[in-house]
Q: What sequence folds into this?
């Protein structure tokens, strides 16, 4: 009897559970608590380490989670960890995005006023445009530009994760996605350090400074923290402006899905617009939670707990994603994927400063 060669293999899963051929391994088994536990525990330990370092040394937890995950990348080669890491990267990010909906109400958005809101849309459009232009200049393609522009315009890493769910690994490889996440985290950390100082140096009042910080810093917590670093009034303004950006996550993802939905269909032909605009379930759940929070406000302290849970789930997802990234592909990608992020960040800040000075009293 001749021995049969093993089947060509599977197959590490990426951020959204897609499979790709990597090396010869055993076929996957069904996910159970026993098979998920090793990867989940490893991811949890790495995320807790990132939180501890962030608390004691003042660095953003998302950035530290990315760096620790990349440093522990070799662990993902162990077959026992793969399913748990893939589960964390895929499912935790989705529930983390859903919980962001607890932070926003329609009344907060309406309270901004039409002129400041129009300025906010202009800031977001400038970030998208600059990212697309930067991506084109360095040969990264429009998908890298959409990812960087959307993450900069809305809410940093969580928006990048949501947009990547629409773009997909077949259009933008995960190495460039991971580098974009690193760039977003670095840009947000620098913005938190510099923007409040710039606002005070320029003599902006509390409303202007809060608008500038809330409209241009990527991460939710850092935008709000940057506002309160100036004053309580600036912090309140930054919170409203930033949450208005978060609320635009669902419509922006819908527009991106509509714009990019035809790619890769080949001979299948175009689909109706209502099919192309279909959103991932977690974006729909996010939007529903915003509506629910608008008409039945969350109890005191509940929203704060939701924000903390959302940040922790996103940290777990980002850490797991970094651990599953292929370092060789990251090295080969080089610095070019960072250019769209830098272009979007600079354009966002410049436009936000212009709007703050001219439209905000």
A:
């Amino acid at each position: 009897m001749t021995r049969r060669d093993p089947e060509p293999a599977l197959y590490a899963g990426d951020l959204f559970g897609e499979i790709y051929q990597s090396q010869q391994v055993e076929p996957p088994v069904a996910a159970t608590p026993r098979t998920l536990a090793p990867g989940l525990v490893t991811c949890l330990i790495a995320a807790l380490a990132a939180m501890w370092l962030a608390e004691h040394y003042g660095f953003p937890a998302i950035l530290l989670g990315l760096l620790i995950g990349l440093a522990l990348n070799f662990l993902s080669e162990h077959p026992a960890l793969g399913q748990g890491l893939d589960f964390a990267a895929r499912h935790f990010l989705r529930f983390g995005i859903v919980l962001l909906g607890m932070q926003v109400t329609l009344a907060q958005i309406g309270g901004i006023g039409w002129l400041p809101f129009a300025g906010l849309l202009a800031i977001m459009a400038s970030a998208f445009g600059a990212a697309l232009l930067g991506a084109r200049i360095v040969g990264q393609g429009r998908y890298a530009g959409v990812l960087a522009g959307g993450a900069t315009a809305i809410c940093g890493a969580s928006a990048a994760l949501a947009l990547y769910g629409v773009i997909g690994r077949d259009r933008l490889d995960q190495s460039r996605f991971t580098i974009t996440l690193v760039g977003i985290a670095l840009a947000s950390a620098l913005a938190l350090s510099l923007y409040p100082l710039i606002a005070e140096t320029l003599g902006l009042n509390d409303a202007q400074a809060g608008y500038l910080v809330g409209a241009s810093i990527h991460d939710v917590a850092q935008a709000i923290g940057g506002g309160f670093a100036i004053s309580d009034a600036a912090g309140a303004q930054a919170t409203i402006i930033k949450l208005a950006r978060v609320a635009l996550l669902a419509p922006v993802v819908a527009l991106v899905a509509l714009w990019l939905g035809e790619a890769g269909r080949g001979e299948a032909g175009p689909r109706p617009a209502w099919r192309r605009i279909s959103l991932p379930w977690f974006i729909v759940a996010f939007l529903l939670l915003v509506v629910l929070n608008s008409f039945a406000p969350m109890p005191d302290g509940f929203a704060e707990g939701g924000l903390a849970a959302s940040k922790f789930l996103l940290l777990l997802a980002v850490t797991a994603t970094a651990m599953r990234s292929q370092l060789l592909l990251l090295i080969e990608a080089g610095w070019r994927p960072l250019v769209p992020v830098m272009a979007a960040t600079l354009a966002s800040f410049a436009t936000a400063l212009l709007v703050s000075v001219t439209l905000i009293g």
Summary: The CA atoms of residues 251 and 310 lie 20 Å apart. DSSP finds 17 helices and no strands in the chain. The two ends are 85 Å apart (CA to CA). Residues 1-27, 263-270 have pLDDT under 50 and may be disordered.
